[in-house]
Design brief:
434 residues; disordered N terminus; eight-stranded mixed β-sheet; alpha/beta
C-alpha cells in the first residue's frame, strides 16, 4: 500500500472552537467561518516548528442585554493579550518567521507554525524553546498519511445499484443488521480529505462540513479518499443509486484536514496543524463517533487533543498502519479502536479486522469504483458502531470494542467484524439486562 503525499494549509484567523457550518461552498465569501489561509508551499515539515503558549482568556464584563461573554460571541475565541505578548517577546528572542497561527480552546493554548531564522537549525531552535519557560509546547511540524491504495487509472466506473458487489457489506451481513438498526440520528465525524458533496449517494447524508485546508470548493468535491470513506459508512439506501452504506441513516460531519498534492498518483497527506484544528473543532461538538482513516508519528499536540476527546467519551476508530506497527498517532492511544484489513494472519491483541480489500464505494463526480486499504476497514467499523449506538446511545468505547470483537465471525477463514452478529448480541444483552 502506498501513502499519499500532501502538505496542507490552514486558516489563520479561523477559530478552532467555531461551530460547524452547514454544507456550503468552501469558498463562499458569505461563509462566516471563511478566513485567509496560509499557502501550502509556505509549510515544510522538514523545516517548520509548531509552538504553543498559554492562552487564557478571561470573560469580559457583561452588560445589560449581553451574553455571559459580553458582546463577543464564544466563537471569536482567539489570541489573548498574554499569548500575544509572549509570542512577540519570543519572536524578538529567536527571530523566527510566523507562517500561521490558531487558538486551541480545549487546551487553553495559542499555537503557531513558524520557520526558524536563516542559519538557525531546527534542532537547535527546538532545544532552546524546550528550555524556555514561556513555551508550553514546541515540536516539529509532522506529516500524516491516509491508509489507502492510490486510485487505479482507467478502471471501470459503476453507476448502477451494485449492492451485491459490495464485498464488505455482504461479508459483514449488513443487510441483516439493518432489520434492527440503520444508524438513524447517529452523527459520525470523518477527519479526512474533502468529500463529493453532490454525490447522489451522499448528499442526503452530510450534516455539515469544515474545510481546514483551504477555500477551494472544487478541490473539496474532487477528493477521493474522504468520498470513499463516507460511502462505506453511510451511502444512502433505497434511492436507486449505486451502493448501500453500513449505516445508511447516519449523519456525516466532514472535516477536511488532508489534501492531494498536484503530482499525479500521489495520495492524500495531512499534518500536525490541520489535524489539530480538526480535532479541536470536533471537541466543540457532541458527535460520538470519529473516523480517523489515517496515521503517522506520535505527536504531543495531537495526543493531547485526542486524549481530551477520549475523556469526553468519544468513540475514536482508526486504521492500522500498513506496516502493522501501531506506535504513532492516533493508533497508539489507549481507548482508540484500531482496525486492520482482514487477512489470513492473526490480528494483534485487541485489534479488529474488517474488509479492506477491493471495496466498492463512492467516488467523486458521482461515480463508484473499487479501492483497498485499512482506511476502508476502519470505515466499515465506524458504520457498524453507528448501528450499535443508534440502539444503545450510552455505549462507551470499551463496551463498543468488546462487543465488536466478541461478535466477530469467520468469513473465508478470517475472523472479522460482523454487523448482524453485533446488533443481535447487543439486542440480546439489552433484553437480558434487569
Amino acid at each position: 500500500m502506498k501513502h499519499g503525499a500532501i502538505v496542507f494549509a490552514a486558516a489563520m484567523a479561523l477559530s478552532a472552537c467555531a461551530q460547524l457550518r452547514p454544507a456550503a461552498p468552501a469558498d463562499d465569501p458569505a461563509d462566516p467561518h471563511r478566513s485567509s489561509v496560509a499557502s501550502a508551499s509556505a509549510m515544510d515539515s522538514r523545516r517548520d516548528i509548531v509552538l504553543a503558549v498559554a492562552n487564557p482568556l478571561a470573560p469580559p464584563a457583561t452588560h445589560a442585554g449581553s451574553s455571559v461573554l459580553g458582546y463577543v460571541p464564544s466563537a471569536n475565541y482567539g489570541v489573548g493579550q498574554r499569548a500575544a505578548s509572549t509570542l512577540a517577546a519570543l519572536k524578538r528572542t529567536y527571530g523566527w518567521q510566523e507562517v500561521t497561527g490558531w487558538p486551541v480552546k480545549a487546551l487553553d493554548l495559542y499555537c503557531i507554525v513558524l520557520t526558524p531564522a536563516p542559519g538557525m537549525p531546527r534542532a537547535a531552535l527546538l532545544k532552546a524553546l524546550a528550555a524556555d519557560a514561556r513555551v508550553r509546547l514546541a515540536q516539529p511540524l509532522q506529516d500524516y498519511s491516509v491508509y489507502a491504495d492510490p486510485p487505479r487509472q482507467g478502471a471501470q466506473r459503476y453507476n448502477d445499484p451494485y449492492a451485491d458487489l459490495q464485498r464488505g457489506f455482504v461479508e459483514t451481513d449488513a443487510a441483516l443488521a439493518h432489520d434492527l438498526s440503520q444508524g438513524a440520528e447517529v452523527d459520525v465525524a470523518i477527519v479526512d480529505t474533502g468529500v463529493d458533496l453532490t454525490h447522489p449517494d451522499l448528499r442526503g447524508r452530510i450534516r455539515d462540513t469544515r474545510n481546514l485546508v483551504d477555500a477551494d470548493r472544487a478541490a473539496f468535491d474532487r477528493d477521493n479518499h474522504g468520498t470513499e470513506v463516507a460511502g462505506v459508512i453511510a451511502a444512502d439506501a433505497n434511492n436507486h443509486q449505486g451502493i448501500v452504506g453500513m449505516a445508511p441513516k447516519a449523519r456525516l460531519s466532514i472535516y477536511k484536514a488532508c489534501w492531494y498534492p498536484p503530482s499525479p498518483g500521489a495520495g492524500a497527506r495531512c499534518n500536525t496543524f490541520t489535524l489539530a484544528k480538526a480535532l479541536a473543532a470536533v471537541i466543540d461538538t457532541d458527535t460520538r463517533i470519529i473516523n480517523l482513516s489515517l496515521g503517522g508519528p506520535a505527536d504531543p499536540l495531537l495526543d493531547q487533543l485526542l486524549a481530551r476527546l477520549l475523556e469526553q467519551g468519544r468513540i475514536v476508530i482508526t486504521a492500522m498502519p500498513p506496516d502493522g506497527n501501531a506506535a504513532g498517532f492516533p493508533d497508539r492511544a489507549p481507548g482508540v479502536i484500531v482496525v486492520r484489513s482482514s487477512n489470513a494472519s492473526r490480528a494483534p491483541p485487541g485489534v479488529l479486522s474488517a474488509p479492506g480489500n477491493d471495496i466498492l464505494t463512492t467516488q467523486p463526480d458521482g461515480g463508484y469504483d473499487f479501492t483497498s486499504g485499512s482506511s476502508m476497514a476502519a470505515a466499515h467499523v465506524s458504520g457498524i458502531a453507528a448501528l450499535l449506538l443508534a440502539m444503545a446511545p450510552g455505549l462507551d468505547a470499551r463496551s463498543m470494542h468488546d462487543l465488536l470483537l466478541q461478535s466477530s465471525r469467520l468469513s473465508d477463514g478470517t475472523l472479522q467484524v460482523n454487523a448482524a452478529s453485533a446488533v443481535a448480541r447487543l439486542r440480546n444483552e439489552e433484553k437480558a439486562a434487569p
